[in-house]
From TrEMBL:
Annotated source species: Sulfurifustis variabilis
PANTHER family per UniProt: BLL0085 PROTEIN, BLL6612 PROTEIN-RELATED
Pfam entry (one): Sigma70_r4_2
Limits of the RNA polymerase sigma-70 region domain: 21-79
Source organism phylogeny: Bacteria, Pseudomonadati, Pseudomonadota, Gammaproteobacteria, Acidiferrobacterales
A molecular function (GO) term: DNA binding
InterPro entries: DUF6596 (IPR046531), RNA_pol_sigma-70_dom (IPR014284), RNA_pol_sigma70_r2 (IPR007627), RNA_pol_sigma70_r4_t2 (IPR013249), RNA_pol_sigma_r2 (IPR013325), RNA_pol_sigma_r3/r4-like (IPR013324), WH-like_DNA-bd_sf (IPR036388)
Protein name: RNA polymerase subunit sigma-24
Domain named RNA polymerase sigma factor 70 region 4 type: residues: 118-169
Length: 427
């Protein structure tokens, strides 16, 4: 195997093993930042040794053994942590007695370790941007460069977020443990928020030249599926997975040959991924089977399921979607939910019904720079034949979006309104 081939193999191994490697180390050293440094040291060692010695039979066990040795060296060098060194040494001795083969020891408590790492990386003490960057770094195995490229920010900015996040966790003495029961709901909500933020940035990029960034969708789905395996009794986890699976099923139909956006009602549903739809519907059924009222993610998944089950746009059960949005607005009220509810109302009961609700949102401060508000208003006005007003709304929406593809789409709709208005005036 050539050196480039070995490096590609090491990169693949790192993507697979890094999260559980960091999680296992964090349980031992009780410091996420130090755990990542030790894991990185093991990666460097692999890059130095594997091209000459070959890929070991169990790469994950090799990395863990190397990282553990680095941990022992670290504590030996630091006399202030002598007591921790002794504790770590005793733990390693016990593990070696119980499990002589390191690859067996590697699997001990790995599920709990990963779950602890997820909750730690998404701790509410961190800002949203920090939680996202740290999660992609620790659990996704993404480099700083990859995270920066995905979110269209500079590498130094991402690096600073990650460094500050690890420092904040250390200074706040955030324990590497599962949250107590009384904190579980809030902490789980923070985790789900981060995963869905990553997915949404991939599904509808907020800025840049691409309408979608599939790699982010895939990473969020991977994290969601892992979380569902680790927390099988949490209905909202399955609700989020269902929502992402169903939305991801449309990816192949959301762009045209040149990468231009294709809106939901104009998509070729034959290009929707039926496997992802089946997986999403199964996850939604799992969420529903766990009992109790559906949470925000499960409700959104139920809405997505209405679209997935409709073979054509005309067969969409908009009345049910409208009712589901009513329930979502009551459970998790927000201006964005109200805007989506307005779209559902318009589809179920006519554009005038939707426009009434949208007009009530125009004074909402939080939507002042939200491009989808004038976009939705423009769509409803155009359906009512008020083309000149619609054109102005589409132009305003285009001025607010930071995504090049979306801007082109909105300006195209504005031009269509202008042509329609001119044609009508000429009759």
């Amino acid at each position: 195997m050539t050196t480039p081939d070995v490096h590609r193999t090491i990169e693949a191994v790192w993507r697979i093993e890094s999260a559980r490697l960091i999680a296992g180390l964090a349980r031992m050293v009780r410091d996420v930042g130090l755990a990542e440094e030790l894991a990185q040291d093991a990666l460097v060692a692999a890059l130095e040794h594997w091209p000459a010695s070959g890929i070991p039979d169990n790469p994950g066990a090799w990395l863990m053994a190397t990282a553990k040795n680095r941990a022992l060296d670290h504590f030996r060098r630091n006399k202030l942590l002598a007591r921790k060194h002794e504790e770590l040494g005793r733990e390693l001795e016990v593990r070696q007695e119980i499990a002589p083969r390191l690859d067996e020891a590697l699997d001990e408590d790995i599920g709990d370790d990963l779950l602890r790492l997820i909750f730690t990386a998404c701790h509410p003490v961190l800002s949203t941007d920090a939680r996202v960057a740290l999660t992609l770094r620790l659990l996704g195995g993404l480099t700083t460069e990859e995270i920066a490229r995905a979110f269209l920010v500079s590498e130094p900015t991402v690096a600073q977020r990650i460094v500050r996040a690890k420092r904040t966790l250390s200074e706040a003495r955030v324990p590497f443990e599962l949250p107590p029961r009384e904190e579980l709901a809030d902490r789980l909500s923070s985790v789900l928020e981060v995963i869905y933020l990553v997915f949404n940035e991939g599904y509808s990029a907020t800025a840049g030249a691409d309408w979608m960034r599939p790699a982010l969708c895939e990473e969020a789905l991977r994290l969601g599926r892992i979380l569902a395996e680790l927390a099988p009794g949490e209905p909202e986890v399955h609700g989020l997975v269902a929502l992402m699976e169903i939305q991801a099923s449309r990816a192949g139909a959301r762009t045209g040959p040149s990468g231009e956006p294709i809106l939901l009602l104009d998509q070729d549903r034959g290009r929707w991924d039926q496997l992802l739809i089946r997986r999403g519907l199964a996850a939604l059924e799992r969420a529903e089977s766990l009992g109790g009222a559906l949470g925000p993610y499960a409700l959104q998944a139920a809405i997505a399921a209405c679209h997935a089950r409709a073979r054509t746009p005309a067969e969409t059960d908009w009345a049910r979607i409208s009712a589901l949005y009513d329930a979502l607005a009551e459970l998790a009220p927000s201006p964005v939910v109200e805007l989506n509810r307005a779209v559902a109302l318009a589809m179920a009961f006519g554009p005038a019904a939707g426009l009434e609700l949208v007009d009530a949102l125009t004074a909402e401060p939080s939507l002042k720079s939200y491009h989808l508000l004038p976009s939705v208003r423009g769509d409803l006005l155009s359906r009512l034949g008020r083309l000149e007003e619609a054109r102005a709304e589409f132009v305003r929406a285009a001025s607010l979006t930071r995504n090049t593809r979306e801007r082109e789409l909105l300006l195209g709709r504005a031009d269509a309104c202008a042509r329609g208005s001119a044609g009508r005036d000429g009759r």
